[in-house]
Amino acid sequence: MAEIQCQGCGAVIQTTNPEEAGYAPASALEREDIICKRCFRLKHYNEVQDVPFQDDDFLEMLNQISDTKGLVVQLVDIFDFNGSFISGLKRLTGNNPVILVGNKMDVLPKSVNHGKVKHWLKRSAKENGLEVEDVYLISAEKNQGIQQLSQAIDHYREDGDVYVVGTTNVGKSTFINTLISNTSGVKDAITTSYFPGTTLGFIDIPLDEKSSLYDTPGVIQRHQMAHYVSDKDLKLITPRKEVKPKVYQLNEEQTLFVGGLARLDFEAGERSSFVCHFSNELTIHRTKLEKADELYKNHVGELLTPPDQVTIKKLPPLKGHTLKIKEDKTDIVFSGLGWVTVPEGGITVTAHVPEGVKVSLRESLI
Ligand code: GDP
């Protein structure tokens, strides 16, 4: 079969894998102007579907931004900064200004201080080599903070183009769909067009006569917790509602299991409270440290669930990271799952997560 390119985004049309770029149902091949399913949905329903690309393709594509002038808007998931931050973005996007957007603010507990979240996002970006112009918190799903962000985008883009980038699952499609539906009258103006010079295109959403907002495909970060778990488990571990903190008073040599996906051993220190911030659907089990290994071995996938049986097959083994917590009010962050706040420093813990998933400490957000 001769290679056919999507008239919208330029991806090579294929009919076999709905999850990959350029997918179109076989029936679409009979039409004159063939477009992929993703472009079809955008054109007819104003809906953006995300198409993940392999890292290298994606990074190469992003690199093209460095040859153009435009504002880069990077979306991250507040619950998964390490898993959703694209490292090397500075190198990839050149001297273009970057706005960092923390999505899913609707699930943050009320007690969380938004100023601190922004500060932490900004500092974390800097630690990863990226100076950002500004940080915004939004809920793409609940349409919160979008107006303020739109104004900032308009300000920083200086009449130029805008590139929205993010890893899969940060809510980029939801964000763009919200943005489109907020902008009245734009419905008919939406076109999809081939971004010159790319083999796989960016989706082009015109902002005015001269400039556009480009939706770039979502990058896959392999160490994201989301990729290690089944769809069913992903639903459980992803907070859908405001996270309700759960408090545990622990003595040293006690352990908390977060389902069977993570484990926190209180190795040494005075009796202390551990405030857990995870999806409300996740069950936390307390046990003695000396019994923890055996409990895990005998009950992972049953009492300690998620993981379910599908996840167990692909989940890397848990790996321990020992952390000495010096400062009061510290969060132990389990990337892609949530965090545990310890009010007082001077304790030692070991946090276990699937190998490759990150654990870090930060000043408490509360
Ligand atoms: P993409 O892969 O980056 O395009 O992400 P999607 O837009 O498909 O969203 C990924 C998941 O995050 C979906 O389950 C969304 O429902 C959810 N999501 C997106 N935005 C928000 C948000 O603002 N708040 C919450 N709680 N969930 C969101």
UniProtKB/TrEMBL annotation:
Species this chain originates from: Halobacillus litoralis
Lineage, highest ranks first: Bacteria, Bacillati, Bacillota, Bacilli, Bacillales
Protein name: Ribosome biogenesis GTPase YqeH
Stored Pfam families: MMR_HSR1, YqeH-like_C
InterPro entries xref list: G_CP_dom, GTP-bd, GTP-bd_ribosome_bgen_YqeH, Mito_lipid_metab_GTPase, NOA1/YqeH-like_C, P-loop_NTPase
GO molecular function: GTP binding
All residue ranges annotated as the CP-type G domain in the record: 59-222
Gene: yqeH
